[in-house]
Design goal:
This protein is mostly helical. It has helices at about 5-15, 20-40, 50-65, 75-100, 125-140, 140-150, 155-165, 170-185, and strands at about 110, 120-125.
Length: about 190
């Protein structure tokens, strides 16, 4: 039986309340989740207090305990995992900010490609990025979801289009719109 089919069946079991499905799901999805977390941490400072493995385990526990909210198949699970990982990172960064109260604080930085050139990367604080994505979602909800799935979920444009049920061209237009919107938002002097 193909692994993707196993995941779909186990997710259905989990949604029906079968707690035994959790232990069987983790080995099938761990590599995907670890790759997502690893890509989120590749540009983090070395002394970051949250590690990719901890992020994977916490995200998995939240998804497995979500009462059927983990999705119906591997792609849906990973898309939901992207949202959970984003929220975990933001919650962690906010807690660190509150704990340090701003005095000599080392900010949690993530890398966000906000220009059309794939070589141009910009450091963005994860909390600021979350705030910006919330503002983007008020005007362009689908574009914000495209960013979340591509940036936090590590999905390709084609995978995003499939997940959202839109054409590849529409997903690319939303990605371009969102990157331009975010680039303007993160221009020096554009945010307080």
């Amino acid at each position: 039986m193909p692994e993707g089919h196993d995941v779909t069946l186990l997710l259905a079991d989990l949604a029906r309340g079968d707690r035994g499905a959790v232990g069987k799901l983790m080995p099938l999805l761990y590599d995907d989740l670890r790759a997502m977390a690893g890509s989120l941490f590749r540009d983090e400072r070395v002394a970051h207090t949250l590690q990719p493995t901890a992020l994977v385990h916490e995200a998995f526990l939240r998804l497995a305990g979500g009462g059927g909210q983990a999705g119906a198949n591997r792609a849906q699970f990973l898309a939901v995992a992207a949202k959970v990982m984003r929220q975990l990172l933001v919650d962690h960064a906010r807690a660190q900010r509150a704990q340090k109260r701003g005095g000599g604080q080392v900010r949690s930085l993530m890398t966000m490609d906000t220009t059309p050139s794939p070589d141009a990367m910009r450091e963005v604080d994860i909390v600021d990025l979350d705030d910006a994505l919330r503002a983007l979602a008020e005007q362009y909800p689908r574009a914000a979801e495209v960013v979340e799935l591509r940036y936090f979920g590590g999905l390709s444009g084609k995978e995003v289009a499939s997940w959202l049920g839109i054409s590849d061209a529409t997903a690319e237009r939303d990605w371009t719109l969102a990157r331009g919107w975010l680039a303007r938002r993160f221009q020096p002097g554009a945010m307080s």
